Amino acid sequence: MKLKSLSYLELPPTADFHCHLRQEAMMELCAPLVKNGGCDTVYVMPNLQPPITQVSEAISYHERLSRLAPDVTFLMSLFLHPGLNAAIIAEAARTGIIYGVKLYPAGVTTNSQGGVIDIEKYYPVFKAMEANGLVLNLHGEAVSSPPAAFAEADGAKAVTVLNAETTFLPQLYNLHAAFPKLSIVLEHVSTREGLEAVRRCGPTVAGSITAHHLWMTVDDWCADVFSFCKPVAKKGAGATAAGCFTQPWCSALVIGALEEAIDQGWVREEEVTREYIEGFLSGYGREFYKIPRTAEGPRIRLERRGEIIPEAVSSQDGSITVVPFGRGKEVLSLSWTRS
C-alpha cells in the first residue's frame, strides 16, 4: 500500500492491548482521550499505587474508567502477588471484565516494587489461569544487576536495561513449556530476540508492541527524558518514571511509523497491506483475547490535515500536565465516522 499517496485511510476502531490510565487526576485526564487515538477497546494495566490485586478493586477501577469514557470497552487485569490463588482466579474469570494477570518482576519498572521475585512460586496460579482462560501478561525484563556485578570475575553477564529483555526470555520459554495451553503475552517487545521468541512458542504466545517503540532507538530516550520507557528502546535512567504518553495519537503514530519504515527501506511497500494494518491495530489482539469483531458500526478516518502533536496536554483546571511522545511531530488527523 502506498501510504503516503493516500489522502485518507478508513479503518475499524483500534484496540490497544497495553494501556496505562493511572489513577485520580491523571486518570481523569487520560481516560477521556482514549477515543481521540481511535480506540474503542483498551486492556488496562494494574500497576497503580497500590496495585490492583483484588477482583473488587478491578471492578471499582472499571467503573471509574467507564464513567469517564462510557463509549470505550475497558478490559481489566490483576497484579500478580502472593495473595492470588485458584479461587480468586476463578472469581476473576466470572466477572466478564477481567481478562488477565500481569507479572512484573519486582522493582523493574514504574510501581512494580511489590512484583515477583520467584516465578515458580506462582505455578499454581498459572495452572488456574490456564483452566479458566485468563491471559498471563509478562513485563519481560530481568531485574538489573547491582553495580558490584560489573566487577565480578566469574564471567557472569550483568543485566542492564539494554539486555534485560533478552535475559528474561528463558523465563518465557520455561513458562510456555510448563503451561503450553496458557495464553501468554510478552508485553511491549523491544528486541528482535523477543519477536523471535514469541514466534517460536506458537499460537498460545503473543507479543504486544507499543506505538512509541515503533519509533524510538536508544538515542531517543538517552536524549529526552519524556521518551524514557521500560523496556528501553534498543539500537536500530535513573529515577525517571517510565512511560510514554501516546494515547490521543496512537493510531496515527503507528501509521506514521509504517510510512517511515517504508521510506527507510526497512519494510517493503507491498508488505503494508490493509489487512496487515487492520490486523496490527485491532484484529490480531481481538482474536488472541477472544474479543468479537463487528463488521458494522463506527470506524476511524485518518487524513492529512497538517496536525502537529502539541508540546503538552493539560487538564481543564491546569493541575495536571503531560508531555506527549512525539511532540512537534506531524501526524494524521483522526475522526470517527459511520460505516
UniProtKB/TrEMBL annotation:
* GO annotation, biological process: 'de novo' pyrimidine nucleobase biosynthetic process; pyrimidine nucleotide biosynthetic process
* GO CC annotations, alphabetized: cytoplasm
Q: Which GO terms describe its molecular function?
A: dihydroorotase activity
Q: Which residues form a coiled coil?
A: none
UniProt-listed InterPro entries: DHOdimr, Metal_Hydrolase
| PANTHER family named in the record | DIHYDROOROTASE
Per its record, how is this protein called by name?
Dihydroorotase
Which taxonomic lineage does the organism of this UniProt entry have? Answer: Eukaryota, Fungi, Dikarya, Ascomycota, Pezizomycotina
